[in-house]
Structure prediction request, 253 residues.
Amino acid sequence: MRTWLTIAAAGILAIASQGAAQSADLTALTGMGNFSGVRDLAEAFSKATGHKINAVFETNLAQKLNTNAPADLIAAGPDQMQELVNTGKIMPGTDTPFTVAPLGIAVKAGAPKPNISTPDAFKAALLAAKSVGYSRGCSGTHAAEVIGKLGIADQLKPKTKLTGGGPVAEYVARGEIEIGIQQNNVLINVPGSEFVAAIPASIDKPCPFSLAVLKVTTNEIVARAFVAYAVSPQAGPILRKSLLEPVPATVAH
Prediction:
């Protein structure tokens, strides 16, 4: 894996020199949790190379892939990516961890923002809230684990709401939940709610995401170059703009 990433990274500037007449137009399928990262990386990659990557958010990635819709790349969590590896839908060896999404909280716009700067403060804020909510996906599973480790799962159970689709902050904005827990990048910029802060890093359990090249790609060279770009030194500042974190090079295979 590291060998082809190195080769592809070295080729990013080379493919940029191909010129607009030969520019590619690729599609990267994403879920809600990694969409902002892929979108921002795609914009930067397109500016650097002239090759367009369209980040497309899909509510059901598995269903989309089963329709054999044209696409070149996919971003997903480890379990879903492993399933794609097992079913032979991605190029062998291209499954590459590229980002992790830390968790945070949001409250209704105009509401007091609780102090969650320390594990004890975060624990106290949850206990004081009238209601707490999180999703059924990775961030919700991890939020439940964090709450369990804090030893307050039983106390919170009567006032905990598991949300359906869409950002948890939308439920917060409607007043259905006082404190919403989800990935920072999904909590921000939701009208009617306000992002408070990230959960203390010492107790947080971020959600990991990987990129891979789909076997049905129409341009494997550019698709591989984008995966390499997503784990290059240039990717870190881009990911952090939307409150994501890059994966250390030692993790990115």
